[in-house]
Sequence to fold (296 residues):
Amino acid sequence: MALTKIILPSVLPSYQGKVRDLYDLGESIIMVASDRLSAFDVIFEQGIPHKGEILTAISNSWFQWLTNVKNHLISTEVKDFPAPFSDFDSQLNGRAVWVKKTKRIDFECVVRNYLMGSAWAEYKKLGTVNGEQLPPGLEAGCRLQTPIFTPATKADEGHDINVPFSAMQNSLGKELAESIRKASIELFERVSQQLATQNILLLDTKLEFGLLDNELILIDEIFTPDSSRFCQISEWENAIEKKIPVPTMDKQIIRDYLEKIQWDKSPPPPALPDDIIERTRQKYVQIQEIVKCITE
Ligand SMILES: Nc1ncnc2c1ncn2[C@@H]1O[C@H](COP(=O)(O)OP(=O)(O)OP(=O)(O)O)[C@@H](O)[C@H]1O
Ligand SMILES: [Mg+2]
Fold:
C-alpha cells in the first residue's frame, strides 16, 4: 500500500508539497516524504509504495557521504526529533528528517551533462539552452562537452521556468550566483564519477540551496530519482545508436504511459495500471541499491 496521506495525531502540516509534508518548528522543520506521485505537475490518487522511504534513504546516504558539503540535516532518527514528533515512530521512521530551516534560494539549480527534457525541447526549437547558444547538429540525449548549469525559477504554482544564468546573477548578486553554480557543478561531477563505477550515468539533476547565517547549505533532497535522471550506460548507448528515447530510471515509465493514453495533463489524473506502478517502484529500488553500494 502506498502512503499518500500522512496523518499525525495532534499536529497539522504547515505546507504540503507535491511529495513532502512540512512541519515548521520555527528554526527547524520536520520534513516527511509521502509515497505521492506527481507527473506533469499533477498529483495522482495512487502513489508508489515505499517511494517516500526510498527517496529519504537515497538522499540521506548522499548527504552523509558528501562530508565536505554543508547540508540541512539535524537528525534522521525519529527518537531524536522534538516532541511530539519523537512519538510518531510508526508513521515517520525512514520517511522523515529533522532539518535546519533556511532562507530558501528560489532557484532550482539544475546541472545537465546530456541534452534531455526541457533543454532538448528548447535546443530543438531555438538552438539554445537557457538562452545560451550550443553547437549546431546535436542529437536528443547526447552528451555535452562539459556539464552545464541551467537554473530554473521555483514557481509556487505550475511549471518551473528555465532562465539564463544572468537572471540568477541579477536576482542574487554575481558572487552568490557564482558560488551556487560552482558548488552545483562540483557536486554533479563527484556523484557522476561514483555512479559511473556502477555503470550508471547521471544525465541531469536538480539541487536546492538555502542560506543560514549567510552560509550556503544544501537542502531538500539530493540525487534521487525524483530530482535526477539516471540511466544504465549500455541502455544509453543503445538508445543513441538506434535514435530512440533514452530510458531513464525514474517515473519515465509513467510519463510514457500517460502519453500513450493521450491524457490531457490536467486534473483529474487517470488511474494507473498496477504493472506500471510496480515497474516504476523497481526503478526507484534499483537506484537505492546502487547508491547504497557507493555510500556504505
Ligand atoms: N532546509 C529547508 N529549508 C527551507 N525549505 C526547505 C528545506 N528543505 C526543503 N525545503 C522545501 O520544502 C519543500 C519540500 O516539499 P516537496 O519536495 O514536496 O516540494 P515540491 O512539490 O517538489 O516543490 P515545491 O513545493 O517547492 O514546488 C520544497 O518546497 C523545498 O524547497
Ligand atoms: Mg521536491
